[in-house]
Amino acid sequence: MKAIDVLKQIALALQQLTMPDRLWSIEDLQTYFNVRSTVAYRIKDQPNFPKPIRLLDNSQPRWRPQDIKDWAESRREKNSV
């Protein structure tokens, strides 16, 4: 893992502590899953991935952090069975 990736993960963790209700962007998904942007876009396109929140009609999609964490945990549980 590159130093920049570690710093992004630390920054995301600090944001969660200071702003727990902050919605996540696609860049936050990248950091959380530790993947490149192309993979983050493929993840968000999964049929059972949480639906995004759009603050305006043409705005960037945002997600509730807990929805993403719950989805990731459900995937982990499915893959460990």
Beta-strand content estimate: under 5%
The poorly predicted ranges are: none
Elements, N to C (H/E) = HHHH
Structure annotation, total helices: 4
The secondary-structure class comes to mainly alpha
N-to-C span: 28 Å
CATH architecture heading: Orthogonal Bundle
Main sheet specs: none
Number of domains: 1
Mean pLDDT: 89
Helix content: 55-70%
User: What's the CATH class label?
Assistant: Mainly Alpha
Q: Outline, from the CA principal axes?
A: globular
Q: Report the strand count.
A: 0
Kindly report the CATH topology: Multidrug-efflux Transporter Regulator, Chain: A, Domain 2
- The radius of gyration is 13 Å
Structure, briefly:
59% of the residues lie in helices and 0% in strands.
Structural overview:
The model has no long low-confidence stretch (mean pLDDT 89). This protein has one domain: Multidrug-efflux Transporter Regulator, Chain: A, Domain 2 (Orthogonal Bundle). The protein has helices at 3-18, 26-33, 37-44, 65-80. The chain starts with a helix and ends with a helix. With 81 residues, the chain is mainly alpha-helical. The longest helix is centred in the first third of the chain and has 16 residues, at 3-18. Helices cover 59% and strands 0% of the residues. The chain has four helices and no strands.
